[in-house]
Amino acid sequence: MKILVINCGSSSLKYQLIDSETEAVLAKGLCERIGIDGKFTYKPANGDKVVADIDQPDHKKSVSIVLDALTDKDNGVIADLGEIGAVGHRVVHGGEKFAASTLITEDVMKAIEECNDLAPLHNPANIIGINACTELMPGVPQVAVFDTAFHQSMPAEAFLYGVPYEYYTKYGVRKYGFHGTSHSYVSKRTAEILGLDYDKAKIVVCHLGNGASICAVDGGKSVETSMGLTPLMGLIMGTRSGEIDPGAMEYIANKEGMDLKGIMNVLNKQSGVLGMSGVSSDFRDIDDAIKDGNAQAKAAKDAFIHRVVTYVGGYIAAMNGVDAIAFTAGVGENAPDVREAVSRQFGYLGVQIDDSLNNIRGEERIISTPDSKVKVLVVPTNEELMIARDTEALAK
Ligand code: ADP
To answer: Is the shortest distance between the CB of 331 and ligand 1 below 6 Å?
Structure first.
């Protein structure tokens, strides 16, 4: 079956057409600046990348451009739309309603809409993408794959916040966690690579990208993760602060004369390694600045690593052990020095990195020494493939 995977943002739409039998990506690309003007990128597996300025006033237009490109006489990869067996959508927030991927029905759409309050920037965009596909491909089964679903297995002791319980029962205030598709894929793949029984293995996944989170996977289930009700919690990220004393927010608000909206904007968009370094949210720029002797950039990177270490350590304790630590996403896959610095702090558990094995970027590999008690791996994440797999299973 050929599956169209769609990841809709408020002004962007990423897509891949995946053949579920071979798991090959037939074509992929990106619509950007939707509602502003419109940029379109299309890359067929065996052809050249096409980049074009195409007006995209809304997501429906973007989906129709994608479908036109996929069926184009010269550059297309399918003869007609009938070849698309199902569409899989990434949906950011499924609240407590969804602990797994699901076939989209009217009731499911209502339930996703009910989660809009929890992810006001993301869920409405996901819904627009689903509606656009319904209009342009009537009758084609569609599946929602939630960022939060994998973490629904967390026990209450891990997901409850230390606030009045009624906020949980009345408003659903609790930890949900994100990047679930990635944590699920990487932890499964880690068990496969190591020949571990997934149902028994204890794995810590470090998804370190622009957004970053850590997950403890015990016996194939997420039992702890670092993001919270929103993706602002936990690690220091590209532009997000991660964990911060809530009291500091009041203090800053008073000093700067800022309201809550202003504070949230700072914590989401002007913090993280960007705000700390004053240089960039991109670790490649941070590394360049460090090479030039920028002490503030060095402090930002050190703090980022320190935060990762303290979370990984806590999660190993929560699981009462660990078999493997896996690194993924932009920084996790491409920064040997970060992997080394994190792993070094677990020497006391018998973690040993092999420097030459660790000297890779974007490749799947065990990077610990053969006699390392705890295995350390790089596992490039593949959320689209995971979405395609779930979609095929549900659409069949
Ligand atoms: P997201 O999907 O959250 O936008 P990614 O997982 O693509 O983020 O990660 C993007 C980040 O990965 C970039 O901001 C950059 O800091 C980091 N990155 C990419 N390549 C490298 C590299 N070669 N060395 C260090 N960091 C890198």
So the answer is: yes
Amino acid present at 60: K
- CA 286 to ligand 1: nearest atom: 16
Q: Are strands 2-8 and 84-91 parallel, antiparallel or unpaired?
A: parallel
Q: Which residues are catalytic?
A: 147
Distance, in Å, from the CA atom of 30 to the CA atom of 12, rounded to the nearest integer, reads 7
Distance 156 CA to ligand 1 centre (A): 32
**Which stretches of the chain score pLDDT less than 50?**
none
- Yes or no: say if 11 and 36 are a contact pair by the CB < 8 Å rule: yes
Atom of ligand 1 nearest to the CA of 207: 6
Q: How many CB atoms lie within 10 A of CB 117?
A: 12
Question: Is 282 touching ligand 1 by the criterion CB < 6 Å?
Answer: yes
Q: Locate tokens 């060095």: which residue? A: 298
**Token pair for 369:** 């020494």
Distance from the alpha carbon of residue 208 to the mean position of ligand 1, in angstroms: 8
E strands along the chain, which residues? Answer: 2-8, 13-19, 24-32, 39-44, 50-53, 84-91, 102-103, 142-146, 202-208, 212-218, 221-225, 324-328, 365-366, 375-378
Distance (Å) from CA 335 to ligand 1 centroid: 9
Span 199-227, pLDDT tens digits: 999 999 999 999 999 999 999 999 999 99
pLDDT digits 0-9 by tens, 79-134: 999 999 999 999 999 999 999 999 999 999 999 999 999 988 889 999 999 999 99
In the block, residue with structure tokens 């896996």: 326
